[in-house]
Write a structure and sequence with these properties.
Layout (H helix, E strand, L loop, with lengths): L5 H12 L29 H13 L14 E4 L13 H13 L12 H5 L3 H6 L1 H13 L4 H14 L15 H12 L3 E9 H12 L6 E11 L6 E10 L5 H9 L6 E4 L5 H8 L6 E6 L20 H9 L2 E4 H4 L10
Parallel strand pairs: 1-2, 1-5, 2-3, 5-6, 6-7
Antiparallel strand pairs: 3-4
Helix pairs in contact: 1-6, 3-6, 7-9
């Protein structure tokens, strides 16, 4: 997850604070699936899959000089663009836009007031003209001022029914099947898997256990400050309109240290926003594995990297190649992207 310019950066910052390269190309790679009883069955038998299996085998072998004790087998995964798609905008922003529409009957003034007017008219061009101030207004109106329980309920209802505007699939259907298999494979080998994402921690927690089998207490994300209120014996925690942690770029190592307390040995991301997490893991004295997902499949998903405003993969791309980190080419290394392709 990474945003290329300050305007977009503020958009995601304020989202938690309270387009793609789509050239169509034919996918002609017909490599067969590995045997179904083998690890990572949706991965093609190419270098990234082999590198993962070799690494896991080595660090879980008690006779290996690179053996890693179970307590130190920490794996951290970015979410947007790494575990599920992130185009044409981060899915959490779709949630914010839908909240404006849901709240509109209680705010008739929004019909003639920007930036809400642009949202209600589905005029994204006009919405972008509202700039940082407009984006902040949307987020403040849709994210701030609720209790944590209320916000969880809103997210749970939305994620269960909302569909992607072009894929016409539930957002939770747009998770990457090969990455789900990788999460399972690591857990089978006694890795403790965390999400470390720039997305809102309270946006992800309501559904990550169901979708990724990652429990709430293993989700690290951007967060707002909160406040406890006893409320005459009916206590609640209120979400305040003040940023606590921006868990992107330099914030990711900070979040890892704050919430996990151990450096990861296995990290996965897809953008420049994950580079600092990669470097943090790379500084571990234990043997580590750094994996980047490169979006190269314009037919099954989206193709983008250096020039994309969403999920910019530029500096991280260069450093990964320079240092020999693993780069997964989505088109060439995955037999399927989404589970529904197999059904």
């Amino acid at each position: 997850m990474s945003l290329k310019n300050s305007g977009y950066a503020l958009a995601i910052t304020v989202l938690i604070y309270c387009t793609s390269c789509t050239t169509q190309t034919e996918n002609t790679n017909t490599n067969s699936l590995p045997e179904t009883n083998a690890p990572l069955p949706s991965w093609k038998e190419t270098a990234p899959r082999n590198a993962i299996i070799t690494y896991v085998s080595e660090v879980t072998d008690t006779s290996s000089s690179n053996y890693i004790p179970v307590a130190d087998r920490i794996a951290t995964f970015d979410n947007d663009g790494t575990l599920w798609s992130e185009q044409p905008i981060y899915f959490q922003f779709f949630f914010a836009l839908d909240r404006v529409k849901a709240m509109a009957p209680d705010h008739p003034e929004w019909k003639n007031k920007q930036p809400f007017k642009a949202v209600l008219e589905n005029n994204m061009g006009e919405l972008m003209k509202q700039g940082e101030k407009g984006l902040l207004q949307i987020v403040m109106a849709t994210h701030a001022g609720t209790t944590t329980d209320e916000f969880e309920s809103l997210v749970s209802q939305w994620i269960a029914t909302a569909k992607h505007p072009t894929k016409d699939k539930l957002y939770t259907e747009l998770v990457f099947q090969p990455m789900l298999e990788l999460l399972d494979y690591l857990r089978e080998n006694e890795f403790k898997v965390f999400i470390v994402s720039g997305g809102g921690i309270e946006f992800m927690r309501p559904w990550t256990e169901r979708v990724y089998h990652i429990p709430k207490d293993q989700v690290v994300g951007s967060s707002v400050k909160t406040q406890y209120d006893y409320n005459n014996g009916k206590p609640f925690i209120k979400r305040l309109a003040e940023l606590d942690l921006m868990d992107d770029k330099e914030g990711k190592p900070v979040g890892i240290n704050r919430y996990i307390g151990r450096k990861p040995v296995f990290v996965a991301g897809n953008s420049d926003g994950d580079l600092q997490m990669m470097r943090w893991a790379d500084s571990n004295t234990l043997k580590t594995f750094k994996l980047y997902v490169h979006h190269t499949d314009s037919v099954r998903e989206w193709a983008y990297d250096r020039q994309s405003h969403i999920g910019t993969f530029d500096k991280g791309f260069d450093e990964a190649k320079e240092k020999g980190w693993t780069i997964v080419d989505m088109k060439e290394d995955w037999n399927v992207v989404y589970l529904f392709e197999k059904q």
